[in-house]
Amino acid sequence: MKKAFYFFPLIFSSLYSYIATAQRLTLDDALKAALENRWELKNQQLQIQLAEGENDKLSAKWLPQVNASADLRWNTQLQTSVFKNAPFANGQDVKLVLGVPFNNNLGLNAEQKVYDAATKYDRQLNQASVQSQAITLEKQKIDVKLAVTEAYFAALFNGEKVALAEKSVERTKAYLEAGKTKLEKGTLLKNDFDRLGLDVNNAQTTLNKARQEYALGLENLKYQIGLKSEAVIELVETLTGLFQQNQVVSSEGTAEQRPEVLQEQASLKINELTEQKQKARLAPVVSAYGNYTALQLNDKFNPFSAGTWFPYNYVGLKVNVPIFDGKQTNLLKRDYAIRAQVNRNTVEKLKADFGYEVRNTSNTLSQEKANLTDTKANLALAQQILETDRLRYEKGTLLLSDLKNTEYSLQNAENNYLTSVYNFLVASVRYKKATRGL
């Protein structure tokens, strides 16, 4: 007895610990956690930061480019030059040694771009790239929300299937106990009693399978949310409760607003801008530049010798005009024009695809709603028939096998109704995605 006395508090302590550490999740909680935890969303946000950083790089290109140089030279053998028929030497050839042994040079160069026609297209391309990355993030969020929502519905569906399976086990065990009493009294055949035992075994097998599916459903939900496998979660909503919240499904947008279409339109804009940028490559590029240099000429290596440094400086304006680039610009313009046309065709195809998807999901939603109405009516009828048959069984006017068949019909009606609720919720969330309402 002492062992039992210590054992039961241990069970209750473990159960309390499980309840205390379990993370209670509504569908909204699951969606918020997924948007915070999913790694692909975090990476896409970093991609947006990288795209935005390109604007800073472009601005930096227009800052002055300044560099300093130093050249310390020792002429180990000075250059000799020959003056032929030098008039100052009576027409004779004269050899002259030019320069000094040490020639040091310190310089400062600066260049500032003044005009480049391609710059405005670079800015617009960067802006289009940021927009494209933002649309990609939005599309990923919608995909994640759809996956989490469907996983949440599936987990609830499997959990309620477990509840139905547990009721079935309890029902078959009750029949087995009643049959045992009848068998002992001799009012039930052994073969009929064995059937009752088989019903219990089949119901238990169904329950075990339902529990396995529920556990797998929770694992899938944790994965979709971005939780660790060892995390303990508890779903606090029910399928029927969510159904009450989603009976009215409205359209939030059109196919033209789908992220896939917007993303393709962003790609179209990028290709059009790139085509225009190729034209700008043929425009002149104007730059201003300046230089300040100090040159030392000395017979000895002594940078501090007075009177040996000779400064000079200059400023200028440089114009670079492309004349012929081997037809590269025209070829690139042609390629980007073709790519832009591909984008236009893809946009039209996507609009047609998503228009069909909206119609298809709308029809599916309507059909599931009709199925839900039918299965709900069947469930109510099955419950009514069971109540009548139980009274008949208690009065002895109905066989046990007939009562079991009625209860099996109710069980099927319950499963069918539960499945209809699940299918309606899945159809509603897919319709919302198709109409950009998710």
Which helices and strands occur, and which strands form pairs?
Elements: H1 2-21, E1 23-25, H2 27-37, H3 39-61, E2 65-74, E3 79-86, E4 92-98, E5 102-116, H4 119-185, H5 190-225, E6 233-235, H6 239-245, H7 259-280, E7 285-298, E8 309-320, H8 328-394, H9 400-434
Parallel strand pairs: 1-6
Antiparallel strand pairs: 2-5, 3-4, 5-7, 7-8
Helix pairs in contact: 2-4, 3-4, 4-5, 4-7, 4-9, 6-9, 7-8, 8-9
Describe the structure.
This protein is an alpha+beta fold. The chain has a domain at about 15-60 and about 120-235: Outer membrane efflux proteins (OEP). It has helices at about 1-20, 25-35, 40-60, 120-185, 190-225, 240-245, 260-280, 330-395, 400-435; strands at about 25, 65-75, 80-85, 90-100, 100-115, 235, 285-300, 310-320. The strands form three sheets. A four-stranded antiparallel beta sheet has the order 2-5-7-8, with no helix packed on it. A two-stranded parallel sheet has the order 1-6. Strands 3-4 form a two-stranded antiparallel sheet. α6 (about 240-245) packs across α9 and α8 (about 330-395) runs antiparallel to α9 (about 400-435). The longest helix is centred in the middle third of the chain and has 67 residues, at about 120-185. The two termini are about 60 Å apart.
